[in-house]
Amino acid sequence: MKGRKLLMIPGPIEFEPAVMQATAMATTSHVAPDFIETFGHSLEMMRDVWLSPSGQPFIIAGTGTLAMDMAGSNLIEPGDRALVISTGYFGDRYADLLKRYGAEVTVLKAATGDVVDIKEVEKELNSKSYKLLTFTHVDTSTAVRVDPRPLGLLGQKYGVLTILDGVCSVAGEEIRQDEWMLDVVFTASQKAVGVPPGLALMVVSERAVNAWRSRKTPVGNYYCDWNNWLPVMKAYEERRPSYFGTPAVNLVNGLEVSLGIILKEGMEARFGRHRRIGRSFRTAMRDLGLKMIPISEEISAGTLSAPYYPDGVRGAEFMRAIAASDVILAGGLLQGIKDSYFRVGHMGSVTEGDILTTVSAIEHCLQKCGHNIVRGIGLRGAAGELQ
Ligand code: PMP
What we know:
Bound molecules: 4'-deoxy-4'-aminopyridoxal-5'-phosphate
Oligomer: single chain
Structural class: alpha/beta
């Protein structure tokens, strides 16, 4: 009896004990020398995790939606055109958000489980003059993975700023921000970065900072305005005290430890581990007769999976059975098909053992709900991919 269950949702995730210990230390002043060092060091490590040696990192108290807001509000002026590629719930959210800042938004919406063809994106960029192109790396409602590389390069070709919503991907899926010419890549702490909820994290290119500097109108959001935050980030990196809004001191302590763990594993090894774990989980689901929302392996995420319930299994009944098990999973999120699938997060500190435990719980619950399977078949499939 551990007194707790295995948390396998797409964030918050299971956190490393060393990270939890760091967040539990006595809170210090946000301008104490030790904390300035922790903050500055965390900013430096972000560049290595984002693979963006030239980018400007930001660590802000808030959630992933605040990161979306910060990127949008600083880069959009009323009347600017924005092209949003939507592969689910969070793409749609970005379109709504950008409209609040006066953007003229066009949405290219993928069919459920699919991505938007790159040719269609290029055609649209060719047809009008856009300021901004946004896309979700892994949409948490569908587990569809978009390839950011060609989109970053398209942005460069057409002189359009690119924003990658990496909330469900940074520190899990492969991202090379500088090489792929991505202007803003953001995430939230509770996902693959591995820190309890409460930090919005982003790295911004020089090109985006310059676009912000040449705005003609003030940023329409006081808390988000980079005028307030850029001097603070620069000061921490130069190990000087500074203040605009009180940083989430304890979470930043956890962030320093977690980024250290991520870099110790190494980015290439980490990308590979997520690919392997994702493949293993999907193999198990297919062997159990479950179809996934992403229509192909090529566009399936390593951080998250979204299987449909098999014929004959009622979602509510399955989720009740899971609730009584030792693992915590998430239900569907995408309007229209919400009740026909469930979601399993497998990112960050997730282990092969966690995957096997989760597959075993799913097998058990599917069987309880009347799905006719040979027990162990999913486990065998998962384990086969892990060797
Ligand atoms: N974008 C994506 C892809 C997400 O998965 C989430 C959170 N699930 C968000 C944005 C918003 O993040 P938060 O819930 O931390 O505001």
